[in-house]
Amino acid sequence: MENLRQPLQKGNIYTGTVEGYSSEGLGIVRLDGAVVFVSQAVRGETVDLRITKVMKSSCAGEIVKIRTPSPERAAPECPHFGKCGGCDFQHLSYPEELRAKRQRVQDALKRLGGTDLQVEEILGAKDPAHYRNKSQYPVGADGSIGFYRSHSHQVVPIDRCLIQSEVSDRTARAVGDWMRRYKISPYDETCGKGLIRHIYVRVNAAGESLCCVVANGKQLPREPELAALIQSAAPRTVGVVLNTNTRPGNVILGDKYRTIWGRDFLMDTLCGLEFKLSVPSFYQVNRAQAEVLYSKVLEFAGLTGRETVLDLYCGTGTITLCLAKEAKRAIGAEIVPPAVADARENAARNGIENVDFFCGDAAAVAARLEAEGLKPDVITVDPPRKGLSPEVIASIAGMGPERVVYVSCDPATLGRDVKLFAGFGYRADRACAVDMFPATRHVESVVLLTRSTTL
To answer: Which of 18, 255, 447, 450 is least surrounded by Cβ atoms within 10 Å, i.e. has the fewest?
Structure first.
């Protein structure tokens, strides 16, 4: 083996022990003070690894030989693992995957949040397979349907995915059959030509589905045949929708929709409530774990029926309506107009009257409500991956809630924001992780922030 007192060299082979996992799900090996990120490595293993890339402060490596295998190593069930970029942890046992995710949240709270608060637990999924109720299949320029290779826009053809719904897979295959049978062109992002860009499928708890075909045009050839093939493959399909997206770039959905057959929405039941879901509406992709997550949000909110609750980034109102059942009044805010319309319909459908919804940017809505003198007892937030802006945090603190319940899909931005809240006198009191996305590196977490009594 190489002399480790010399800088690590690309192509050379070294021996080291895997200490843990990065936020990307890679194994971490330290060699002579250098950090090497190694794909498909398992904590505790001693491995021979080849350096594949040398960077300024770290290196990338690949396993050549496992000298001491871990009992937590698992044989990946998916033949596409390592090629498709959808999954990160199929080489781990599920208990080890949960341990890695809990540690990721713990590290972020300590390193970025500046708190020694312990993550109480991670709530794993009873069934980690076929859990996704929303699937988005990119269509390659060659007509391939599947998922992107990691860190690329190259589509890996996949007929069956272990984390997608089987109904979604069948629907995607039906669209592919339609494209081949009637010579429908795939979209080529390099030149902006071609028609079919993505296949988007939602599935509810009852097994009903809604298919949306994303196209570079306002019309599709052979639309009745498309609807018939989808219904044949997935008999419980409730609708087939065309979404027009003629813009270049990575955004999947355009702004215009047209129903080809059936209806343009899907109904689902969550936490005993009925929800209407249009194609662009935000909805947690793992229904069973969403119920676990929301029960933890309610626990942290500590509602007694006397409180006013503000829910920012409310989507179709799922968390808001769950809170409204336990609070005196609930207010939801969301920037996507169709989601707000769905949220209002959802409230009416479920007979919940102590709730209001506002459409607008979270910062603007929070500032407006603060200016109007609203003093919520509890504020819940479920922001996108980028977390909260400093303006939103300042407005939340300005309203002076006793508790803030922060739901996060990114431990790094969560840690950053926990530290910002501390500057306004909010202490992180409780933290829990929830595995919403088995087999991937992603993890959901919930933190309870409590206002200091000295304020």
So the answer is: 255
